[in-house]
Amino acid sequence: MAKVLYEKDGRIARITLNRPDVMNAIDMDIPHELAACVARANADDGVHVIVLGGSGPAFCAGYDLTAYAETEGSNPGVQEMPWDPMKDYAFMKQNTDLFMSLWRSYRPVIAKVHGHAVAGGSDIALCSDMIVMSEDAHIGYMPVRVWGCPTTAMWVYRLGAERAKRMLLTGDKIDGHEAERIGLVHKAVPADQLDAEVERLAERMAGIPINQLMMQKLMINQAIESMGLYQTQMIATLFDGITRHSPEGMNFKKRAEDVSWKQAVRERDKGTFDWTANRPINAPL
């Protein structure tokens, strides 16, 4: 079964992340399948707008830590030491570019977020043109606490420096209410109204000629890109590799192998583990 589903519904293309049993966690295939679906929509003269969602209980819970963190040994995201930063950069830059197919799409993309859009899942959502969240959904990039840097760097361009720092210097998750209040997303609505709200917005856009939609999106995106988006992404993607291969990053990987990634993530997010000293905070020496 495809890990990303594609459906055309009149003038709307519907792209759906489809690993519901693991909250649509990102594996080696999802970035490629996502970009292929975006390309398919852009090649269809009958498609005016794309709606991006997730099947099951969440939009996307980030990278699949069972594969990348908990499994013993090296993998495409964690090399044996000494590591090659350029090898890591090539791997992660490819994923960043595949996520950015949403940004580059000539058709506007509306992300419909329910459950969670966290870590790498927030990268995907924030590459979309507009985000509509359910009020009880959560978005955030918790790996900034250890083992990650958001490679798309979209936080700063959507929020500005002060609010981006608030999110990326804490690793907090925020709900839809807060995301709308600070301007991270277009709108937050009650969960039972999410589908209807997204449909209204998509149908409104779908009545506009494709060339008009394309010109407005290109013009707005150009303003952001002129602010140094791609240079910032280069730095962010390099830093992401460093976070996974720093002493603290390798300690997180080992902790996930020893006690499971869920326990390691719990300790990371609660701030109860000293990743530099590689022991619980305030534990006896």
From TrEMBL:
Entry-linked Pfam families: ECH_1
GO MF: catalytic activity
SUPFAM superfamilies noted in UniProt: ClpP/crotonase (SSF52096)
UniProt superkingdom: Bacteria
Family: Belongs to the enoyl-CoA hydratase/isomerase family.
Name by which UniProt lists this protein: Enoyl-CoA hydratase
Biological classification of the source: Bacteria, Pseudomonadati, Pseudomonadota, Alphaproteobacteria, Hyphomicrobiales
